[in-house]
Amino acid sequence: MSNRTALVISAHSADFVWRCGGAIALHQKKGVDVTVVCLSYGERGESAKLWKSPDATLEGVKVARRKEAEGAARALGVHDIQFFDLGDYPLEMDREAKYRLVEVIRRVQPAFMLSHSLEDPYNTDHPYATRMALECRMIAQAWGHNPGEKVLGAPQLYLFEPHQTEQCNWKPDTILDITDVWDQKRAAIECMEGQQHLWNYYTNAAENRANQFRRNSGGQAGGREAKYAEAFQSIFPRTVDEL
Q1: Cα–Cα distance between 50 and 61 in angstroms, integer?
Q2: How far apart are CA 26 and CA 153, in angstroms?
Q3: DSSP secondary structure letters along 93-149
Q4: Which residues neighbour 119 within 8 Å (Cβ) at sequence distance 6 or greater?
Q5: Residues 6+ apart with CB under 8 A from 215
Q6: Among 141, 216, 140, 159, which Cα is nearest to 10's?
Q7: Which of 136, 113, 145 minimizes the C-alpha distance to 27?
Q8: Is 17 strand, coil or helix?
């Protein structure tokens, strides 16, 4: 059993694949147990292809989205995936749902967490999920919430890349080389049949971030030859002994 864990809080059931699938696969490979929480299936707003079927139903779309996400999770080696089924467009969490997420956070005790950008005018479910991640992180740290339980420490929250960064005031400060696990991420991407139009978009994004990885790791003076990468923005200051 690994003594390091991580937690991904995904607004919809495909978001974790596009935005941090490489990070999940890479850390699982390194012995970090990654738990993914999908707050909704994205059944209303992110399943257009599935709704084009003349016999589509809400429950049928949910089933298809869950099947896709579970297949992607297997491809990435996810330790545990949970579906809260809270609905989307809009995504909303009441106190009960928040406490449910707090329970997961305390049980997982993540060394770090990942969620969406703090702004996204194209999809307000995304920043809402991150506000809930921050709120539930805070509650999980509170000694007075369910006294006697192990409280949460202070895990970093990384914001994964939104679809259009310049519209979301998202500025990456961490670039992760995912070349070694790219085949796993691509396999996970191809599980998301309801959003096939995004497959090449996120492949291109990974290639572009790899170019930036090479540049920032030394460039022509000896940068590492990354072919695929993911980028993240950290929320909290890092505590270090040396640079």
Answers
A1: 6
A2: 23
A3: --HHHHHHHHHHHHHH--SEEEE--S--TT-THHHHHHHHHHHHHHHHT-TTSSTTS
A4: 127, 167, 168, 169, 170
A5: 223
A6: 159
A7: 113
A8: helix
Helix (H) and strand (E) counts in the chain: 7, 7
- Does the predicted model carry a pTM greater than 0.85? yes
Estimate to the nearest angstrom the gap between the alpha carbon of 157 and the chain centroid: 11
How far is 113 from 34, CA to CA, in rounded Å? 9
List per-residue pLDDT tens for the chain, 243 residues long: 457 999 999 999 999 999 999 999 999 999 999 999 999 999 999 998 899 999 999 999 999 999 999 999 999 999 999 999 999 999 999 999 999 999 999 999 999 999 999 999 999 999 999 999 999 999 999 999 999 999 999 999 999 999 999 999 999 999 999 999 999 999 999 999 888 889 999 999 999 999 999 999 987 767 888 999 999 999 999 888 998
